[in-house]
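Because discrete structure vocabularies remain unfamiliar, we reproduce here a specimen of the format, pairing a chain with its fold in token form:
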Amino acid sequence: MTQEARTAAASRKKSPAPVARPSSHSSTATAPVLQHYQAAVQLVQQGKYEKAIAKVLSAAPPEIVERCRMYVQTCKHQLQKAGLAFPTPEERYDYAVSQLNGGFFEEATEQLKGIIGDYPNADYAFYGLALIDSITGRAQSCLDNLSRAIELNPKNRLQARADNDFQNMVDDPRFTELLYPEIP
């Protein structure tokens, strides 16, 4: 080693170690929170929603607060969904519509398909599926479900003509033919 290298090495040894700035969320304080978070994620994946909610701490570091809120909301939604029991298909339909209006299209679709599974001639469930398909841009599925709804109950044709939820389908000539078959 040259003299210059020894001098440089010696000067590095003498320089003080950098001092960590105190923060509201130091890594030692964050570690247990992150462990709780990881444990909560595992509980969500296992379907143990109540335990997952209890595991997520409200004093989470800022970088994961939003993610914690998302998991808490997911857990609450799953717990609410698990306790659902509908005495009539109409009540199940009302719930599906509330989910549709809230933007929970998968849950609404699941409920409507459940109605159709139990009541294959439930025109209103096919109509609801057609609405979801229109909103989510699935044109062919929309046409298929709306056709079935109209076949089961021709009044659905009149309702669809005035329904703004079919706005995405207005320019599709197949949709026009389905709603206005009398026009050549």
